[in-house]
# Entry
Amino acid sequence: MSEETLPPQHQDHRPGREYKMDPEPIYFRESYRPAGKLTGKVALITGADSGIGRSVAIHFAKEGALVVMVYLEEHADAEETRRQVEACGSEMLYFAGDVIDDYLCQRVVDETIRKWGKIDILVNNAAEQHPQKQFEDITAEQWEHTFRTNILGMFQLTQKVLPHLKEGASIINTTSVTAYKGNPMLIDYSSTKGAIVGFTRSLSINLAARGIRVNGVAPGPIWTPLIPSTFTEEQVASFGSNTPMGRPGQPAEVAPAYVYLASEDSSYMSGQVLHVNGGSVING
# Structure
């Protein structure tokens, strides 16, 4: 990674803040043409305050969905997501809290059902990562916390949403290119993303007879607040340069994959992972 793709920058606070990024990510492109693909659907999205989650929320709202946002504690970013979703003519419920909190997961589901009476789409997107140069530097506490956030939270929320999903519903899990290529500095993170691939494939088979589809998206290097809050200034400056396209992707380049998997356009697809990664062929 030697070519500069972004201005050098770093944020000390994790998760990062979107409004501190230079340049700010692109969440929606005017070339996108909504077609009412999700009209009347209720979509629950974790990690929706910024990054890929925000872009998915905006695209879903543009397609006519009602949006439920779950985020950790980035209130300013979440408020901007709410503003943009409501500017699309949609409505939003939003909840601050950690997806590893079983009580929070239940409250999100209960209040969504109380307000709108159903859930049609679940996007499990919340995640964290903590780079370490040496494997020995990964503590048991870090390993456990990464797994609790990235896969246990997904398990808990999915279990609580599932009783309310009807035939035709869609579950979409965010995995990563690191699940297929690995990453020497993100061993615990990559391991959780591999677990998400297995979870997606196995759950899709389990739910097939109920008419509920389960798929995943495996983004490559995407410009989100997680990046400057995770990596050094030098690493950020060359972020995405090792892809065939030679640059990082934007959230707006990933979100349409979620629209496809949430809509009837993908009615014969389950157990699959879409790879939006700048051209890397990973054969997974």
User: Anything to note?
Assistant: The mean pLDDT is 95. The radius of gyration is 18 Å. The CA atoms of residues 49 and 77 lie 5 Å apart. The longest strand covers residues 213-219.
